[in-house]
């Protein structure tokens, strides 16, 4: 491997927001100009926490907010954060932008039960709040789908959107019957049944929800680093992304959906083969699943989870060490 230039600077920080996701990616160019991608932010009560990190470490940087999807534990802080620190850009895929006749809401009345319609209504309300905040600070809103071309080059770094594909997005939102899989309920007996049958609980082939699979996924590539941020994307979305860009041998993987078993399987983990894996999770039976952690470890990954480190954040960097930060130990090997 050629030597890594000293000016190739990147920092990826996963803030401990309990149940939720909040990731700050800082890139610097050869003139040391900084840009920060604010990828989700956790639940509303975490707003002050996220804003503090932004004000402390990213005050002078250009700020691009990325809402991977509209689940409360990902998007709820973003409007407050935008109002507090400003933004130049907002990347957010709103299905209503491509639906002038309002067919999504019309179909929701027949394809979703009352509870799930309420979830969708709340999701659109959260989207509206974030978009209004972005408009108020003069940020440019973009809907972006997967492409092999970078959305931005910053010094040595290329930033790509690798999910969702426009075809997958259209299938979920604009195909008759597509909304029925937007929200799914996990079978409470599924794990017990798999264990009793002697099968791996991460290899039963059951994918996550349509909403999760619509998560915006970012790939950041540059000298010495290949970082994949996944939101709550599932197996189909990751496989589609791998057909667009080479996702093998990642330097860092943001493990999707807080380490859920519905988002990765053994084949995907072996394919991605991340050197380091970050998991944002509250630390319950489902998030993260020990079977997911174990498989990542067996694939050679050093796993770090916000539920285990006892720190306010987990930080991965290259040439961008911060004062006061010190090494932490990865999750001990699970037999």
Automatic annotation (TrEMBL):
Q: Which species is listed as the source? A: Candidatus Kaiserbacteria bacterium RIFCSPLOWO2_01_FULL_54_20
Report the domain of life of the source organism: Bacteria
InterPro entries found in the cross-reference section: Competence_DNA_uptake, RibonucZ/Hydroxyglut_hydro
Protein name, per record:
Metallo-beta-lactamase domain-containing protein
């Amino acid at each position: 491997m050629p030597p890594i230039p000293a000016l190739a600077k990147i920092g990826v920080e996963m803030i401990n927001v309990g149940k939720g996701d909040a990731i700050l990616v800082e890139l610097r160019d050869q003139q040391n100009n900084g840009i920060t991608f604010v990828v989700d932010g956790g639940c509303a009560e975490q707003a002050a926490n996220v804003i503090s990190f932004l004000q402390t470490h990213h005050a002078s940087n250009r700020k691009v907010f990325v809402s991977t999807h509209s689940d409360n534990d990902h998007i709820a802080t973003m409007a407050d954060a935008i109002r507090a620190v400003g933004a130049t850009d907002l990347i957010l895929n709103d299905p209503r932008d491509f639906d002038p006749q309002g067919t999504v809401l019309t179909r929701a009345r027949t394809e979703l039960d009352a509870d799930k319609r309420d979830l969708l209504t709340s999701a659109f309300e959260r989207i509206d709040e974030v978009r209004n905040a972005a408009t108020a600070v003069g940020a440019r809103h973009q809907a972006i789908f997967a492409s092999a071309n970078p959305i931005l080059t910053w010094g040595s770094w290329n930033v790509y959107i690798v999910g969702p594909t426009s075809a997958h997005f259209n299938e979920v939102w604009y195909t008759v019957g597509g909304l029925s899989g937007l929200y799914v309920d996990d079978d409470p007996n599924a794990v017990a049944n798999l264990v009793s049958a002697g099968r791996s609980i991460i290899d039963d082939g059951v994918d996550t929800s349509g909403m999760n699979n619509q998560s915006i996924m970012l790939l950041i590539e540059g000298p010495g680093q290949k970082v994949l941020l996944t939101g709550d994307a599932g197996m189909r979305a990751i496989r589609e992304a791998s057909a667009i860009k080479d996702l093998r041998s990642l330097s860092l993987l943001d493990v999707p959906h807080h380490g859920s078993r519905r988002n990765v399987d053994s084949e995907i983990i072996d394919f991605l083969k991340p050197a380091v894996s970050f998991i944002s999770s509250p630390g319950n039976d489902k998030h993260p699943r020990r079977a997911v952690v174990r498989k990542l470890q067996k694939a050679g990954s050093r796993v770090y989870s916000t539920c285990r480190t006892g720190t306010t954040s987990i930080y991965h960097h290259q040439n961008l060490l911060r004062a006061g930060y010190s090494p932490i130990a990865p999750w001990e090997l699970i037999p």
